[in-house]
Design brief:
With 139 residues, the protein is mainly alpha-helical. The protein folds into 2 domains: 9-42, no CATH class; 50-133, no CATH class. It has 4 helices and 2 strands, in the order βαβααα. A two-stranded antiparallel ribbon has the order 1-2.
């Protein structure tokens, strides 16, 4: 791969050279209709640093839940069900904005798994927030 790919990035095959004309681009597009194609994500070096990725993922999730917690803390009189449904809606928004958009443009796989992750993950966040921030008994 190092012989054919000079820089890290995403490559679509087949493709035309970067300096091709719009006419050449259209010619390839027409010729490729209905034929196989591939997308390559190329990295020069493999890094198996799973601990670093887990830490970054955890920190990202903490920030997201913190932001949602701040928004929800401003809502008064909400019960467990409202927190749960609102969190699932946030998960669906995130899912549609990322996974569905990626599927539309890149024809990626794993859409069902991403949907389950969004609904279950954000649903659990909603249940936790409903218990933590939910309606408090009157004094």
């Amino acid at each position: 791969m190092n012989e054919n790919l000079q820089e890290e990035g995403q490559y679509l095959l087949p493709t035309v050279p970067l300096i091709s004309t719009p006419k050449e681009q259209q010619r390839l597009k027409d010729a490729q209709e209905g034929r196989p194609w591939a997308e390559i994500v190329y990295h020069k070096n493999y890094t198996g640093d799973i601990i670093g990725r887990i830490i970054i993922g955890l920190l990202t999730n903490i920030v997201m839940v913190g932001l949602l917690s701040w928004i929800f803390s401003k809502m008064e009189g909400w019960g467990l069900f409202t927190f749960f449904v609102s969190s699932v809606f946030v998960g669906l928004i995130v899912f549609m904005n990322t996974s569905v958009t990626n599927r539309i443009w890149n024809e990626s796989f794993g859409l069902t798994a991403d949907l389950i992750d969004a609904v279950v993950g954000w649903g659990l966040v909603g249940l936790w927030m409903g218990g933590y921030l939910g309606v408090k008994p009157k004094k």
